Amino acid sequence: MNMGIYDDSLLVLLLSLSYTALTTKAGEVFRSDYEPKRLGCFRSKNGKVTPLQQLILTDRDKTSRHYSGKKIDWGNWNSYIQDFAFRCAKEADKKGYKVIGLQFYGECWSSSTATPEMFTSSFASTKCTGKFYKTCGPDEKYCVGQGHANFVYNLIKVPPRWEVIFDFEKGSASLSQWKQTGTAFKNQPTYGDNPTARNRPEPSNHQGDFWIGGAENRPNKTYKAGQVQGDGPKGTLTSPSFYLNGNKLRFLIGGGCDIKIERVELIVDGRAVKSATGKCKESMDVHEWTVSCFTGKEARIRLVDSSSGNWAHINFDQLEIWTDKKHLSDWCPLFDFEKGRASMADWTLTGTVFNNQPTYGDNPTARNRGEPSNHKGDWWIGGSENRPNKTSKAGEIQGDEPFGNATSPTFVIKGNKLRFLIGGGCDINFERVELLVDAVVVKKATGKCTESMAVQEWDVGAYKGKKAQVRLVDKYMESNIWSHINCDQFEVYQ
C-alpha cells in the first residue's frame, strides 16, 4: 500500500463478523459470508511499501472514485468499523482478492497479488495496537498497524448454515431495540416453560431460557412460575432491521391460529410480505419461509396481537437465517396496494371508476354483504367500493355506474407463472383483468359475480423476459349489474 499522507497507521482487518449479528446505531443488523483467519502483525518487506497496494473502498476521501458516500461514525466506532469491514470484504470478494485491510478506520485496501503465504514470520512486527491505542492482544479482533506495519487477516468463505438473528436470551434487554405498541408484549420475554409450570399439557418448546409468550406473565426468574396475563392485552412488537443475506428464514411459532388477528409478519419495504400464525396451542413448532425474492434487502419481524378473544395471543422464538444466497423459487410480489393511494401513483387511469382506489379493509363485510373480500393485507382494488382511506366510513360504495381502466407500470416477466386475486363482475366482455405483452393483450380473466376474490393463475413462461403490463378494465354496461372488477396481490413465480 502506498501510505502517502496516511503514514501514521494502518488498520488491516478481515471480517470478524462471520455470522455474527451486528447492530448499528440505527438498529440495522449486518451479516457476513466470511470468517477471519488471523495472520498477525507484519511489517512491510522494504519498510516503505506494504503488500496491500490497491484502494478499493473509502469513507474518507470524497474525491476518490472509490468513495462510498458514507461517513465515518466516530461516535459509534465499534459498530461502524464492523459495518465497514463487511463492505470492504464484499468489495474484495467481488475482485477475487484473498486479504483485506482498513486504513485509518475508513479506507479499505487489498491487492490482487497479496496472499496469506506472503505474511511469514520473518516479517512479523509488534507495532500493532488495538482500540484506543492499547497493545494488540492475541485474541483482539480489531488492531491497528503503526507506520508500515499491518495486522492481517485472510478472507475465508464459510459454508451456508442456520444462524441466529434474534433470540431472547438476555431477558428484557433483548427487546431494548424492539418497538412496542399496546400492552400485549409489555412483560416479555417469558422465562422458562411457563405453560408446563401451570400444568398445561402443551410444553412451550422454546429454545434456551427466554421466549415470547403472549399470554404469559413470567418476565424473569423471580416471578412465580405459571402465571398468565391472559388474552386481554393487544399490541404489536417490531424488531430492529436486519439484512436478508440468505434464502430462508425459520422460527418457532405458537399461540392463536387466526392469521387475521394473531400472526408473525416479515416486513420488507414497509409492507408485510410473509405471515404465519400458530395452531391454537401453546407449543411452538418450526415454521420456515423462503425469502429469495428479497435477498439483500432490509427487513423486520413484527408480532401482531389484535384481539382480546379466545386464543388471542402469539408465541415466538429463535429467528434464524439460512445463509445460502442461491435463489429458491417462490411467489415474488409484483403489485399490491399496501401503500394506499400512493400505490396507484405510477398507474395510468382513464374514466373515474378507479379514482378512489384502492379500498381499505373488508368493505363488503362492513355493510353486511355476506361476501368477504378475501383481500391480502389492508388494501385492494374494489371497483364499486368507496373507502379510499382508514378515516372514510366503512361499508360505503360508489356503485356500478363509474367506468374506466387502470394500467400498471411496465415490468419484465421474470418467471413462468403469474397469479392474483380477482372478484366482482363475471362478463369478460365488460369486466376483466388483462395481461399486455409488448402492448398486445395475451391473457384476460373476469370474476364470478361475487365480491369475494379468488386466486387466478396464468402460465406466462412463453413471455419470460418480455415487457408487460396489467390492465384493469371496467367498461360501461347499460344494465349496471355487476359492472365492476375487484383485484389484489399480483405475484410472479420465479
Automatic annotation (TrEMBL):
User: Which residue windows are transmembrane per the record?
Assistant: none
- Tell me what topology the record assigns in the membrane: Single-pass membrane protein
Q: Which portions of the chain have biased composition (kind: Polar residues)?
A: 185-207
Show the ranges annotated as biased composition (Basic and acidic residues): 368-378
Keywords of the record: Membrane, Signal, Transmembrane, Transmembrane helix
Domain of life, source organism: Eukaryota
**Keyword field contains Transport:** no
> Which segments carry the region annotation Disordered?
185-208, 358-401
UniProt subcellular location: Membrane
* Signal peptide annotation: 1-26
Q: Which GO terms describe its cellular component?
A: membrane
Q: Per the record's keyword annotation, is NAD included, yes or no? A: no
What is the protein named? Uncharacterized protein
Organism the protein comes from: Exaiptasia diaphana (Tropical sea anemone)
Q: What is the lineage of its organism?
A: Eukaryota, Metazoa, Cnidaria, Anthozoa, Hexacorallia
